[in-house]
Design goal:
The chain is an alpha+beta fold. It is built from 12 helices and 18 strands.
């Protein structure tokens, strides 16, 4: 699991660190830098998946570019940036770092390293500018490092699985790489969820194929997931939700549609397909599905998690996130602007809220744990955290 994430000269950040817990909330005004953090996570997920560094930034036929492309990846006025993570695996902590710089053709990998209680692999910084990059791997207690030349267009971490290196090094590198590959950024787009979708084994980032993913499940598991979706959704709307389910449609039974049974009065049950569901309902279903079907030890990131949800239902959302993150074994990172949601968290969650803000002097973005903000106890004695957000006192 990812425990810490450090950003140095990445976009608007000079040098800051994000602490990741089983349930983490990011707050901050518009343009404070929250989305820049998500872009950094997206970049790491892509390079760990074997996507070339340039493509991970600029996109290709299958993925969209990161916002701003190569022109805005590195903080203005700087020539290089780095991203570092601390990962907890098998009761031990490992640190991974990748550094990049601007070149005439775009962005180039400068250095990369992975270490635990010793350096496991590292690269030669002096070869920047060459297509081939020497990487050095720990070989044992008394052995000299083993040099292997690798392709600079791809991160070393994603290549270790195919290299002849020490088994202990390979095992750790593969697990760290899998941790990054399992980062999933969910941005549900309700309009994309309202149509028929092809059967699929993986939820799309926009959740547009949610019906196809659910319909593709083995029948017993599908019914279990449908029951859980129904139970978690039922407290949210004013009307009574009797059932959430999917069905195969079409002559070839290769497409699916999402349905919902509602009860407004008495025994009058109405069936509604996704075309008639509200944006908030569809977004909520997408979030629950992503959690329920997520891999153990995955980091799920949801931007504006409460978007489309009535403030009075914030308590239900928070309770659901706490319960599922614990039961499934998945970490959830959420961004929000909603003061009602933050107030619902309660004082026991203060340690898990980070504030993204702009430094008044430099204009650079920085991440500050809410509990580290000066005079927070005094401020909270007069206002709730949500009220402090609304008044702009936290920023």
């Amino acid at each position: 699991m990812i425990k810490e994430f450090r950003l140095v000269n990445w976009k608007s950040f000079e040098d800051t660190k994000l602490f990741v817990d089983p349930l983490t909330f990011l707050i901050g005004t518009n343009a404070s830098g929250k989305s820049n953090i998500l872009d950094a996570f997206q970049f790491l997920q892509r390079i760990a998946s074997g996507i070339a560094i340039q493509s991970a930034i600029n996109g290709d036929r299958s993925i969209h570019p990161l916002r701003g492309g190569t022109e805005w990846i590195i903080r203005q006025g700087q020539c290089s940036c780095s991203l570092g993570i601390k990962v907890h695996i098998n009761k031990a902590d490992y640190e991974y770092e990748i550094e990049m710089r601007k070149i005439e053709q775009g962005i180039e990998l400068v250095s990369e390293k992975l270490k635990g209680n010793r350096d496991l692999f590292w690269t030669d910084r002096e070869t920047a500018g060459h297509a081939i990059m020497p990487a050095y791997f720990h070989t044992g207690k008394n052995g000299k490092p083993k040099r292997i030349d690798v392709n600079r267009n791809y991160c070393v971490l994603s290549q270790v699985d195919k290299l002849h290196v020490n088994k202990d090094v390979k095992d750790v590198a593969v697990q760290v790489n899998e941790t990054l590959k399992n980062i999933f950024i969910l941005d549900p787009i309700p309009n994309h969820m309202r149509g028929f979708s092809k059967l699929s084994d993986q939820l799309a980032p926009d959740a547009g194929n949610i019906a196809g993913v659910l319909a593709a499940l083995e029948e017993t598991k599908r019914k279990q997931i449908e029951d859980k979706l129904t139970n978690y959704l039922r407290p949210l709307p004013e009307k009574d939700i009797k059932q959430v389910f999917v069905e195969l449609v079409g002559r070839f039974r290769s497409d699916a549609m999402l349905y919902c049974k509602e009860n407004w009065t008495g025994d009058n049950i109405v069936e509604v397909d996704a075309r008639g569901m509200s944006d908030g309902t569809l977004r909520f279903l997408a979030i629950i599905t992503a959690i329920l079907l997520g891999k153990t030890n995955r980091l799920l990131i949801v931007e504006e998690i409460d978007n489309g949800l009535h403030p009075s239902r914030a308590k239900n959302l928070v309770a659901m996130l706490k319960e599922l993150s614990s039961d499934i074994g998945i970490d959830i990172l959420c961004t929000t602007h909603n003061p009602a949601l933050i107030n619902t968290l309660g004082n026991e969650m203060i340690s898990f809220i980070s504030c993204v803000k702009r430094n008044e002097n430099s204009g650079n973005s920085e991440i500050v744990l809410l509990e580290d903000i000066n005079n927070l106890p005094k401020l909270m004695s007069m206002n709730s955290v949500g009220e402090l957000m609304t008044k702009g006192i936290l920023h």
